[in-house]
Amino acid sequence: EFNSYLANPSKNIESLFSYLSVCASFIKLNSTLPNSAVVERLSSVAGQILADKRCRLSDDHTNKMIFLRNHLK
């Protein structure tokens, strides 16, 4: 199946879904396990951003604020 996937002329990521075992291997090998320290830090930042004063933030805006706070230090 892997050779068939490589022979496929399509370079689109959606073509991966036609090859289930290749897709499963791709997901397994390209997924990182969360580090507990990083997860705890993100949870702490999210808790600070999602305080009662900011209860009307949209999901998108909240995600952007968490991203910016962690990457603009």
Topology:
Blueprint: H1 2-7, H2 20-29, H3 36-49, H4 59-71
Helix pairs in contact: 3-4
Describe this protein's structure:
The structure is a single chain. By secondary structure, this protein is mainly α. It folds into 2 domains: 1-31, no CATH class; 36-71. Helices cover 59% and strands 0% of the residues. It has 4 helices and no strands. It has helices at residues 2-7, 20-29, 36-49, 59-71. Helix 3 packs across helix 4 (59-71). It is elongated. 0% of the residues are buried. The mean pLDDT is 78.
Order of helical and strand elements = HHHH
Q: What's the total helix number?
A: 4
pLDDT under 50 segments (min length 5)? none
Please state the average pLDDT score. 78
Principal-axes geometry comes out as elongated
Count of folded domains: 2
Summing up helix and strand content along with how strands pair, one would put the structural category as: mainly alpha
Assembly form of the protein: single chain
- Total strands: the figure is 0
Structural Rg: 19 Å
Q: Give the proportion of residues in helices.
A: 55-70%
Q: Tell me the distance between the termini.
A: 45 Å
| Major β-sheet annotation | none
% residues in beta strands = under 5%
Summed up:
The chain is mostly helical and about 70 residues long. About 60% of the residues lie in helices and about 0% in strands. Helix 3 (about 35-50) crosses helix 4.
Q: What tags apply to this protein structure?
A:
mainly alpha, HAT C-terminal dimerisation domain-containing protein, 73 residues, 2 domains, 4 helices
